[in-house]
Amino acid sequence: SDNDCLKLVEYFRAQMRKDPDMASAVAAIRTLLEFLKRDKGETILGLRESLKWATDCLTGEDSSVAVSSGGELFLRFISLTSLEHQDLSRCKKVMEERGELFLEKISMSRTKVAKLCHTFIKDGAKILTHSYSRVVLRVLEKAAAEKKRFSVYVTESQPDSAGRQMAEALRKLNVPVTVVLDAAVGYVLEKVDLVIVGAEGVVESGGIINKIGTYQMAVCSKAHNKPFYVVAESFKFVRLYPLNQQDVPDKFKYKADTLKTVQNLSEEHPMIDYTPPSLITLLFTDLGVLTPSAVSDELIKLYL
Amino acid sequence: MPGPDKETDLTERIEAFLFDLNRGGSGAGPLRGSAETARETTALLRRITAQARWSSAGDLMEIIRNEGRRMTAAQPSETTVGNMIRRVLKIIREEYARSRGSSEEADQQESLHKLLTSGGVSDENFRQPFAALKPNVIEAINELLTELEGTTDNIAMQALEHIHSNEVIMTIGRSRTVEAFLKDAARKRKFHVIVAECAPFCQGHEMATSLSKAGIETTVITDAAIFAVMSRVNKVIIGTQTVLANGGLRAVNGTHTLALAAKHHSTPLIVCAPMFKLSPQVRRLSFLSDFYRYCEILSKVNVHCPVFDYVPPELITLFISNIGGHAPSYIYRLMSELYHPEDHEL
């Protein structure tokens, strides 16, 4: 079983390497679909059990919210499909077809989000963003392609300096970009017109889970009365309802390696934080432009 | 021959309507209320359905979309025209789905659930002709017209729940809906109304005259006095030109000031808006250009005269519409019930 786990993780890593632009949730779903195809189980219950085991395997490798939400979505997909067809082999065939279709659709999500969001960037705008987000990058690419002139401030985003990667990518698009310290967010906000961030997970209340420092940025934007926009694909919606920072499960806060090796988690720096919905102006998803209160509607439609 | 005559008659009517819309916007023609515009648009769309040549739902939707684009281009600030077109498009979709026998009401919106369970690309191109489609669509549009006629009364009926005796109510400018609302409450209760005059058109004066004729004690104040007087006010009740998709408003200029003053004093702000004012647009930063009309009084001075204000949803307490009261955070839901997402962009 350990061997199988390693093979699964290897497949997952290969998917991520093949296409560095792919979201980790999409890679996870692709891996689970492949696992489904190779599974030799005889019952639907057995299938669900082994899929749950596979998801745990993957979260052991990459403990981010996105992988967990991708796994849960896939499990839900299996449950919904298995309700329609009782016979296992037919069921599996339908699942495989629909799975491929689903993957096709969600690979278009970033484009849909970019199409919705770029109209909110007007000519001459100054945008503030946080860390490295491929969705935000795609939105800014689209805006630049529409010949809009805008400049971007990116936070450095310690501890991994992901903001510098974002700045590099933006420089390639000929967008004027400035890297600022995480501590300089309040300082720079008076110059900025709008704030756009990505999200690793969108929770039931309409809030988001994202790289540490996002909450700070949201509080400052609220204080300065600047719109705070979130861009996220719909497969990132997760069934969590944190009421404060402590409520976010530890397994999301720290990297998978840290969770395995470190004894005392309270001495580690968390990698993510929670931003409550009251600080978010609008969410741009492939399901449309949503207010934070509309997110729970979507989740209810899916899970209940 | 009946054929070409009907067509030319139809085109004439459309042209006349577009001309009226255009004139109304530049201030030269008669100022029409949004309710009349909505009714006329719907009546015109019914006429198009009845008289234009079309064989399938897809054709009809194309025709309506084209005419719709022309109408919204004639007067972009009159959003009720676009809203009615989207309502009619949704009606056509529903009738088509009903004729096909599928219960597609649940399937209208994109949702995560739909993503997971749909079996293939839906080939909804609306090409199948149905004989019963025309009369069904016309009947549905008639129902829509009846609904439009009853909106002001439906809203006014809710007045007694919200207005109590000896209250001081503030409003701004002139709104037919708020007028009816207040007059209905005045039949059973005694209260005071303070009207902000809303320069430069000063429609507040007409509102005050009309209210006092109905026996309500009214006071007119200048816009500058809004904040000063707000501490004495129990409720603020306003109308609006449009309700945006995020729960915000596009209302007559001065409304944002009023809303901020109300928020500062924790006074509830109630918006009386019928459902046909709900628009799928969200406020974008570039909206500002729609909000202005230029007045050239002197040659070297540019006078910017914004006609509309944007009021963000956080400042609004309650929306009273013809289907009841709602919180601003619920507006997105009403939107999804009234319009189909593919019609948001005409």
TrEMBL record, chain A:
It is found in: Cytoplasm, Cytosol. Its main location: cytoplasm. It holds the Pfam family IF-2B. One of its GO terms (molecular function) is translation initiation factor activity. SUPFAM superfamilies: NagB/RpiA/CoA transferase-like. PANTHER family: TRANSLATION INITIATION FACTOR EIF-2B SUBUNIT ALPHA (PTHR45860). Belongs to the eIF-2B alpha/beta/delta subunits family. Acts as a component of the translation initiation factor 2B (eIF2B) complex, which catalyzes the exchange of GDP for GTP on eukaryotic initiation factor 2 (eIF2) gamma subunit. Its guanine nucleotide exchange factor activity is repressed when bound to eIF2 complex phosphorylated on the alpha subunit, thereby limiting the amount of methionyl-initiator methionine tRNA available to the ribosome and consequently global translation is repressed. Component of the translation initiation factor 2B (eIF2B) complex which is a heterodecamer of two sets of five different subunits: alpha, beta, gamma, delta and epsilon. Subunits alpha, beta and delta comprise a regulatory subcomplex and subunits epsilon and gamma comprise a catalytic subcomplex. Within the complex, the hexameric regulatory complex resides at the center, with the two heterodimeric catalytic subcomplexes bound on opposite sides. This is Translation initiation factor eIF2B subunit alpha. It comes from Sparus aurata.
Automatic annotation (TrEMBL), chain B:
It is found in: Cytoplasm, Cytosol. GO terms for molecular function: guanyl-nucleotide exchange factor activity; translation initiation factor activity. GO terms for biological process: animal organ development; central nervous system development. The keyword Cytoplasm applies. InterPro entries: eIF2B_beta_subunit, IF-2B-related, IF_2B-like_C, NagB/RpiA_transferase-like. GO terms for cellular component: cytosol; eukaryotic translation initiation factor 2B complex. It comes from the Eukaryota. It holds the Pfam family IF-2B. Keywords: Cytoplasm, Initiation factor, Protein biosynthesis. Component of the translation initiation factor 2B (eIF2B) complex which is a heterodecamer of two sets of five different subunits: alpha, beta, gamma, delta and epsilon. Subunits alpha, beta and delta comprise a regulatory subcomplex and subunits epsilon and gamma comprise a catalytic subcomplex. Within the complex, the hexameric regulatory complex resides at the center, with the two heterodimeric catalytic subcomplexes bound on opposite sides. Acts as a component of the translation initiation factor 2B (eIF2B) complex, which catalyzes the exchange of GDP for GTP on eukaryotic initiation factor 2 (eIF2) gamma subunit. Its guanine nucleotide exchange factor activity is repressed when bound to eIF2 complex phosphorylated on the alpha subunit, thereby limiting the amount of methionyl-initiator methionine tRNA available to the ribosome and consequently global translation is repressed. Belongs to the eIF-2B alpha/beta/delta subunits family. This is Translation initiation factor eIF2B subunit beta. The lineage of its organism: Eukaryota, Metazoa, Chordata, Craniata, Vertebrata. The gene is EIF2B2.
